[in-house]
Amino acid sequence: MSTEDGSIPEDDPRLRMVRSPRIHLISESQLLSEVKQIYAGLVMVEAKCVEVDGKQAALAKAMEQEGLSLPKLTNEQWQALIALHRTLLYEHYDFFLASQHPSASASLRGLAAKYGMATRMWRHGIHSFLELLRHRLPHSMEHMLTFIYLAYSIMALLYETVPAFEKIWIECLGDLGRYRMAIEDDDVEDRGVWTSVARSWYSKAADKKPSVGRLYHHIAILARPNVLQQLFFYCKSLTVSIPFAFARQSILFLFQSVSSNNLPASHTQLVNVCFVKLHAIWFTCINFNHFDGVLNEYVSLLDLHISEVGEKWTVQGCLVAVCSIAALYQYNTRESKLRQAWKEGRTVVKEEEADEVPAQIPGQGTGSECDNFLPPLPREANSEHATTLLAPASSKGKENTEEYKASVTASNRDEALDASSCVPWKYAIKMGFKIFNLVLQRIDDNHILPHVHSWLAFLYHIKDSIPAIRLLENDLPWDSLVTLLNSLIKSEPASSSHMDSSLNFATPTFPRGQNRPLPEDWTLRGLEWTENYLPQGWIEDAKVDDEERLLELPSFVALRKQRILWLAYKLAEAGDWLTYDTASMRFSVHPAVLERIR
Description:
Number of strands: 2
Shape: globular
Number of helices: 24
Largest sheet: 2 strands, antiparallel
Distance between the termini: 105 Å
């Protein structure tokens, strides 16, 4: 009740302060006991999952060898299996929440990493069961959908609540999205949605780990039917700092598809298919007698194609350059002449600190009571998260690809017994530099600059090894390159003095422009030959939305010119390939390289 003036009396019950609820803090010992109890139950369920999945996998293998079909499981059996694996996922979730509790000590928090809990959760709780379900399609479709949605929701929850393992959760979510996409045959729209979901997660994972080739391999699978993007991501998965060797098998699916001529016949697709065929010949060592004809056809189509697609070639041109450079590296094989030459003659050697104490993994050897209170570390706990390549959608596709693989193997064995004929490096040089030379002829076409930028970034890396650049210098189109460089200088008014002017390239520092990466910077990051080009944090610190990364802004033209001229200037400073006259502001081919070419 209020007083006459409308105020509330001081003794009114509504003014009494409500006591806050008593907070019961959990102690370290209580957390340890909770984690130990959860882990004991988890191990029991995990062992049961391993046993059941192992028996089913062995049965499937035996039946396949005998040519028999697998016996169908009843709905009750499927529900029991899903309940078993759901229990394991819940146990893992509880373990992560307890071990990553805000009150947990550093050693307790490190237990999940030490015991490889995230990897074990994926391997035994999700992946093995998904493979069991996949091998029993289409009868297991409904149950597979149920389990995928269950696993996806738990992974999404872990992504939100346990950020310490964010990189693993992101990749797992991508894998689950790819499984969901792969089993969708009826609804094209749903398949497209899940393709976009999986690609989004893998792209996010690549942002976190740009040097891991496995992620680009997965993105390549999702890039169908864009054959140029597929080829690019497969090449990138093989030429980043941590290459993914399995991509050598997966890329054969792409080569088989272009050789079957079952792709749409649009002009753009025709040009890109022609380019992929060049790589198919070079990669598989088959039909080298057709190489020159395919190359001439591609070059004849390319000039008109660049004119037709216009700004789109700012993206495509960079992809073409990266693929051509991957071919020069022989797709990162052990026999790569360029890699061997670069290692032999590199002038920039990373210092190895032999006496450096290795970094301590959280929770290992900390001397705390947490170190040994759980059972011994399982053998597979430290394995890296990775999934097997999803099988082709149909048995026919699998048979065709296996037949193609067999033909590749037979050709390599019978027609190319010695290494020099199996990997004739001259074809990669001819392909890369003939395309590069054609692009350089397009003076005043700003759409070709990302392609040129990519090649200059590669030469910026190769310049640190005399033997490596000597392998290339006889075939590099030096005259065409110099002509283009000088045309870039002429295109900028001499009176222009602002910092973003392309004329401000004769500096020791990397041209940053507006501190926003160029679209091709996102494409080039992670590649081994760009590690010393892009500054530390250049990509990571950029606040650019995913949708805007490849957006071409008007300001990028001047910055791209500046970058190209800066790279050429650094190449001129480093050796006897180019010269730059500051008075006339002109590049020219160094007399020494002309003499060596003669």
